[in-house]
Amino acid sequence: MADSSSIDYSSIPLIALNFSLRKELGLHLNPRNTVAADWATLAEMMGFSYIEIKNYEKYDNPTAKILEDWQSRCPKATVGKLVSMLEEAERKDILTELASLIEKDCIAYLKRKEESPVQVPEVDSWTPDKNGITTKDDPMGNMPEMFDAFICYCQSDIEFVHEMIRQLEQTVYRLKLCVFDRDVLPGTCVWTVTSELIEMRCKRMVAVISDEYLDSEACDFQTKFALSLCPGAQKKRLIPVLYKPMKKPFPSILRFLTVCDYTRPCTQSWFWGRLARALSLP
């Protein structure tokens, strides 16, 4: 097992840094500061454009968001690179205060790698953390692609999903959606991959509700799995979207959730902004 003196931070992907550490970084970098470097300075060093940085201002925790996006788009996003950036930005105060947490997360990451079972070539034991499952994954599994939301839909509703992509990804919201037919590599186990994406890769799930949705086994599995991850919907993990009138009864397991309703003409003008805000929450 690695100890602090032997850690090569430049070889450890940013994904090794856990939620608690990212939260601590946010406490230091989120407040806009005219004296010390803040999250915007870090984002510029990571290569984000002026427009992208302005868009990040709408997030409650922009530091966490830029770290997430940086690790998704940059193969060289490592703990060592982040440490170098903070040093270059003259934020050694952060490194001093969080050194033990950084070390702890990196040691835990290395320990998990050491404990990973050795695969025998003759045995087919595919695991999503070892092989890429989305189009932008690192094939070695070191840089998993992350998303703001997994979109649960049936094929008959694909046109509305395309509109969702246009409204949420290609506008000022700049959200990142996981659309199975577009983002998942072929040849993988549907149920295993879906579970991995919903639980580990996506902050939330949007369920596109329709009469056809009710007849879909895949949608039924995805919805029940997402609900099981957050009993009582305390963290707004699942967001139902109704985009056209239904002939069948609305699914009973979703009746306790607030629905984002596109069928009402009087509320369509703020539909996308409301949905984007819900998906942008930490």
From TrEMBL:
Task: Please give the Pfam families that the UniProt record associates with this protein.
Answer: Death (PF00531), TIR_2 (PF13676)
Gene3D superfamilies assigned to the protein according to its UniProt record, in alphabetical order: Death Domain, Fas, Toll/interleukin-1 receptor homology (TIR) domain
Q: Where is the TIR domain?
A: 145-279
Cellular component aspect of the GO annotation = cytoplasm; plasma membrane
Where's the Death domain? Answer: 24-102
Q: Which SUPFAM superfamilies match?
A: DEATH domain, Toll/Interleukin receptor TIR domain
The entry's protein name is Myeloid differentiation primary response protein MyD88
Q: Which organism is it from?
A: Anguilla anguilla
